[in-house]
Amino acid sequence: MELPRMHAFLMALVFTCVKAATKDVDMGSHCGPLGNGVDVSDSDAGDLFWDNYPNSEDCMVTLVAAVGKRIFLQFTDIHIEGTSGFYGCSDVLYVKSGSYGGNFYPDSTWETVCGTSHPDFDAHNRHVTLKLISDAHSTGHIRIRYTVYHSAHYDGCDQYTCVYNDRCIDDSLMCDGVNHCGDDSDEEDYYNGGCGVVKHRKMVKIIGIIAGCVGGLILIIAVICICYRRNKRPATTTSGVPMATVPQTANRGPAQVSEGRSYSPPPAYDEVVKSSPPRDSGNAVV
């Protein structure tokens, strides 16, 4: 692989992150007086919106998260006619934790939302129901951010735990420019803030990639050195000196070989006695 391509590949590994699973819900296309459930079990976050709701509307929608999850709502951009408080609301958005069916009018246990702002709402439940009722003279718009989380206190957390509450949100929601925790900790730069954690993980990933590249380079060099040393060894050759043949005799044993020459073994004892001249006993000196 060419160097520029390798560099681009490493940079892509370093800065690639898993994109959050988001799902925006158009409230107007899901509403009904009996309440329609909207499955957000495959989503980490999203917007529930109605850009221009009509007058004389009676609409109820229930968001449904996966089992063990909970839903947290933030009213990021709302314009619902009326003012919460003494004068009441001309139009009203009712919010309550849980799932409710049937055509009914919410009571005082429901959160009442109108005007242009409202505090965050934590359902502490996998279901949250919203019911919009508008009068005959007004329209408005709604944009509510929902974040799906689970309790780090009760369930533990292998993702990101918000610093000032026990919400465990998906890692992909960290440092994305959106305050999913409600305390803004997932967007902070300090060491356990979301952006700080992201930067630390990127650094760890960079170090891991560098260490892997260095280790791979060392392994390649070692293999090259081993192959080079094996090819450098002299080949084993045979000498051009012919091997001496060793004749075998019945009584003498193998011939003695020395420095490429062949020698016969000494004669046997009985052969020496037979070939010796007879002794002259008459000329013996006493």
Automatic annotation (TrEMBL):
Polar residues composition-biased segments = 235-251
| Source superkingdom | Eukaryota
Residue intervals passing through the bilayer: 206-228
* Pfam families per UniProt: CUB (PF00431)
Task: Give the start-end ranges of region Disordered.
Answer: 235-286
Fetch the InterPro entries from UniProt. Answer: CUB_dom, LDL_receptor-like_sf, LDrepeatLR_classA_rpt, LRAD2/Mig-13-like, Sperma_CUB_dom_sf
Q: Does the keyword Transmembrane apply?
A: yes
Question: Which controlled-vocabulary keywords does the entry list?
Answer: Disulfide bond, Membrane, Signal, Transmembrane, Transmembrane helix
Leader sequence range is 1-20
Q: Which residues form the CUB domain?
A: 31-153
* PANTHER family given in the database record: CUB DOMAIN-CONTAINING PROTEIN, LOW-DENSITY LIPOPROTEIN RECEPTOR CLASS A DOMAIN-CONTAINING PROTEIN 2
- Protein's recorded name: Uncharacterized protein LOC109463304 isoform X1
Q: Which organism is the protein's source?
A: Branchiostoma belcheri
Encoding gene per record: LOC109463304
